[in-house]
């Protein structure tokens, strides 16, 4: 099932086998590719690609409009999830698969 492009996607730092994905800062690293530095030299993440924690699990929130605004970034992030067999949640509590 391909995620609906009208739903936000949450990529969880849990593999399909149930293992925690390492390194533990993977979401910050991936979101950092599309972040900028503020005047105070602090990282400002894109509003469309945000690292987060959900139920104690490191996640990456991918806003649905990233596919329209930056298709290559959207593809990169989903290809990363696919290659690393990470669990996805999209829409209001549903799960998603990239296969």
Secondary-structure blueprint:
Blueprint: E1 9-15, H1 26-32, E2 36-37, E3 43-44, E4 49-54, E5 57-62, H2 66-69, H3 71-83, E6 86-90, E7 94-96
Antiparallel strand pairs: 1-5, 1-6, 2-3, 4-5, 6-7
| Total discrete domains | 1
CATH class annotation = Alpha Beta
Query: Biggest sheet: strands, sense, closure?
Result: 5 strands, antiparallel
User: What Rg do the Cα atoms give?
Assistant: 13 Å
Query: Could you say what the CATH architecture is?
Result: 2-Layer Sandwich
* Outline: globular
> Averaged pLDDT, please?
87
Could you tell me the number of beta strands? 7
Distance, first to last CA = 7 Å
Q: H/E series, N to C?
A: EHEEEEHHEE
How do the strands of the widest beta sheet line up side by side?
Answer: 4-5-1-6-7
Question: What is the helix fraction of residues, given as a range?
Answer: 10-25%
Number of helices: 3
Strand content is: 25-35%
Low-confidence stretches: 93-99
CATH homolog superfamily? Uncharacterised protein PF12112 family, DUF3579
What is the fold-level CATH name, i.e. the topology? Alpha-Beta Plaits
Alpha-beta content class: alpha+beta
